[in-house]
Structures are given as C-alpha cells and as structure tokens.
Amino acid sequence: MKDSQQKTDAYWMGEARKLALRAWNEGEIPVGALLVREGKILGEGWNRSIGSHDPSAHAEMMAIREAGVNIGNYRLLDTVLYVTLEPCAMCAGALVHSRISRLVFGASDPKTGACGSVMDIVRHPALNHQIEVEGGVMAESCATLLSDFFRWRRTQKKASRIAPERKA
C-alpha cells in the first residue's frame, strides 16, 4: 500500500471514530462508519440498534443506506467503507450486495467478525463480488474505545444494582 493511501485511511478512520463517539454519547456500542468515493463522504453512520429497537441499525448499514439515498442507487461502485470495527455477517452481506470496492476497518472482532476473523464473507470466492480488505487501521485506538465503553457500561450496571442503605 502506498504511504499516501495509509495517510488517507488513517484520516478517514479518525472521522469514523468521531462517529463512534457519537454512538457512545447516545448509549450505543461505539462503532462508526463512513462511505467515501473520491474523497467525498456519501454516507455516514453510527450504531443505533438500541435506541431505534432495530437489530439492523449498525453503523455500516446506516452509512450504506444514506449513501444509496444520496446517489440514488443501491450499487455503491468505486467506494470505500471505513468502519471502526470489523463488520458482522449481516453487514458483510450488505457490503457485497451493494458492490462496495474496498473495506477498511479498525479493530478486528474475534467473536462475530465476518471479514476475516470468524469467517470471510466479503472475499468468499463463491459470491459474485469480492471486496478488497484492509484491517487494523488505528486498531488500538478503535479497540480501546470499545473496551472503555464496555467497562463504563459494566460500572453503570453495577452501580444501578447497589441498593440504597436502609435506616434502622
């Protein structure tokens, strides 16, 4: 990969990370995504599954939906998706179906990652479209954001379970 491409990937991942923080501020798992074509953002998203009661409202899905509306087409040719966490199977399928050219993700997901960790949907040879994948861009920063969020959430849950002291 060219040095200039690495700088571009880091820039866009930094922007996706800002969207992940937006998810955190809304009480959602902090994942952010941007869909870019030729240096222009076509769609952006952050996790909204909890607040919208929609299991498909992942950051990637939100970015893809917005981009499709913005360009008036579900085929998102010649685009790059930047996402802070490796996509799950649902999102990976949507990436293939929408014909995204390249995926750049931050942290790997060893439990549900479908772009190389648990399975590799986006590069499966039996499918009609494969996606170029670059994982690990700003991986530590993206992973730290997630682990900090879950640590904070466990602390919040623990605090809510502590009963107030009773007066005798």
Automatic annotation (TrEMBL):
Record bears the keyword Methyltransferase: no
Cofactor needs: Zn(2+)
Gene3D superfamilies: Cytidine Deaminase, domain 2 (3.40.140.10)
Listed CDD domains: nucleoside_deaminase
UniProt-annotated binding residues for Zn(2+): H58, C88, C91
Membrane-spanning parts: none
Family: Belongs to the cytidine and deoxycytidylate deaminase family. ADAT2 subfamily.
Subunit comment: Homodimer.
Full protein name: tRNA-specific adenosine deaminase
Underlying gene: tadA
